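User: Run a structure prediction on this.
Assistant: Running it now.
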Amino acid sequence: MRSFRSAISAGCDLIECDVHLSSDGRLIVIHDHTLERTTNGKGMVRDHTAAELRRLDAGEGEVMPLLQEVVELAIGKVGLVIEIKQVPIQYPGLEEKLLAMLRQLGAVSECAVVSFHHPSIRMLREMEPKLQLGILEGARPIDPARLMREAGADVYSPHWGATDPQLVKEIHSAGGAVGVWTVDDDAGVAWCKLCRPDSIFTNRPVEIGAALRS
């Protein structure tokens, strides 16, 4: 939670988190499908209960957050982008659980959901027309606007290196927005200045924000 609070204090417009399901069906926030890289645990996230996951050290004593805690932190302060981790491993029922939580907390209008698993985005569009949705992409497709439309998404979110001015133009012409990831160095900044996407995701908001404005 420390990183989210830091981003809010830095004046970020959005914060982003990655969501998995614990073995007992809780929405838990962690980047990887496995525990070794970012915690002192071992194994797959999906093989542990939420209580077991929250006993782990997620760095300097931090506890792995439940998604509800992140949503409650963000509401009224900052937009929240939630990436649902449905590739390569899928969590049956994740979309339904996520949408039920957002509705319960009154947060549908303050959140966006994105995924590399485009069928999940299409499913969410059918369940909730008002939810902002985006598709993630790591390559430069022939027709990105078609991919966005087929998924029912509002946002096309590629790696910055798979972005170009023509792609941004095509997405804008289709009524969408472009949000690129993850811009953490001078090369990414320079390319974003040329391509002019609508939003930029970074692990270094203070430094990258200053570089983009310079």
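The beta strands are 14-21, 27-29, 79-84, 111-115, 132-137, 155-158, 177-180, 199-200.
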